Amino acid sequence: MAPHIHTRTVHRPVEPVEGSTPLGTPLYQSHTFAFTDTDAMAAAFEGPGSPYVYARYGNPTVAALEAAVADLEGGTGAIASGSGMGAITSTLWALLGSGRRVVAQDRLYGGTEGLLDDLRERWGVDVVKVDVDDLDAVRAALTPGTDVLLLETIANPTGRVADLPALTALAREAGARTVVDNTFATPVLCRPVEHGADVVVHSATKYMGGHSDTIGGVAVFADSGTLAAVRARTAEFGAVLDPFAAWLISRGLSTLAVRVARQCASAQVLAERLAAHPGVTAVHYPGLPDAPGHATARRILDGGFGGVIAFELAGGLASGRAFASSVELAALAPSLGDVRTLVMHPASTSHRALDAAGLARAGIAEGLIRISVGIEDVEDLWADLERAVGVAVGVAVGA
Ligand SMILES: *Cc1c(COP(=O)(O)O)cnc(C)c1O
């Protein structure tokens, strides 16, 4: 007798794929995996290298993304997370602990700053901030017992590029491991492991995904011991990536290099034109020949200077607000790395709680605008930006 419909709706036949290779990444939207007998299942609980058993420990679609990003970054392996913060939190929790010490670049991504505050306040982690352009200051901060040097390849919003070979060498001398947030550069422009980094973290939400439709993170490792330690934390926090999000990010990787190349080329054009505009008082973009650290950027980045530009409008807060509300093609939105151009006015939005002195400490001028350049036609983008700068400058002179 055939099983009941209530049984057959559940036990549908599944066709294995054999004899050819799917070119799209197969989506295994399965959190659990079945076994023929208890011995086979027991073997799956043995840990890394054993069959999939439960998706918080591993899933084939997530593993495909991890293998792809590890390959792009030149690491031994990678761990995907539910967001960039999942990757950063799992990594720092694995490498730090109560009473341990981290030396961090001043002005990191806001979420990372919050995590460091929390590690200090709740767990007594010694957090030392340092200007990483000053190698002597970094050397002095890396006292014996320092566990981690925490950097970003391209700092936001200054666009300063970290001198990774020099910094990772200092960390190694001090016995510390270097963790680099490579979100802004992507492995297309920079592969920090090649410059001595131990761990590379990403918000895959940004360039890797690239289409405003998914959130995820990845950590890449130079050695398998650190990977295993972070894998355990990621599973413990449940900071794992859903298979469908992994599938979307893998799909995003297919076009990452062409998107980034075009975003860099357009950003270079827009940065140069903004720098020549009388309504703009400063442009922060590492591709400008007179940018501080341009020489470092040329050594560390390969194929462009990134897709994010920050610039300062004459007229401060009022101009910034007017600009951000006047763009039509660009979207007023947080995040970056999207196929669409996104603009932000931090002083009136993400950093609105800070007064003028606080903004200055954060390195954010009142008229500072951040643009994440998309893949639209560069002349269409310039027309939009030039018109909005005109509106902003008009506001500034009371027109
Ligand atoms: C967005 C971002 C993060 C955090 O990533 P989420 O995916 O939002 O958790 C970390 N670092 C940098 C540089 C980012 O831009």
UniProtKB/TrEMBL annotation:
The keyword Magnesium does not apply. Keywords: Lyase, Pyridoxal phosphate. Its cofactor is pyridoxal 5'-phosphate. It catalyses: L-methionine + H2O = methanethiol + 2-oxobutanoate + NH4(+); L-homocysteine + H2O = 2-oxobutanoate + hydrogen sulfide + NH4(+) + H(+). Residues 1-23 are annotated as: Disordered. Transmembrane segments: none annotated. It is an enzyme of class 4 (lyase). Signal peptide: none annotated. The keyword S-adenosyl-L-methionine does not apply. The modification N6-(pyridoxal phosphate)lysine is found at residue 206. Gene3D superfamilies: Aspartate Aminotransferase, domain 1, Type I PLP-dependent aspartate aminotransferase-like (Major domain). Its EC number is 4.4.1.2. Belongs to the trans-sulfuration enzymes family. This is homocysteine desulfhydrase. The lineage of its organism: Bacteria, Bacillati, Actinomycetota, Actinomycetes, Streptosporangiales.
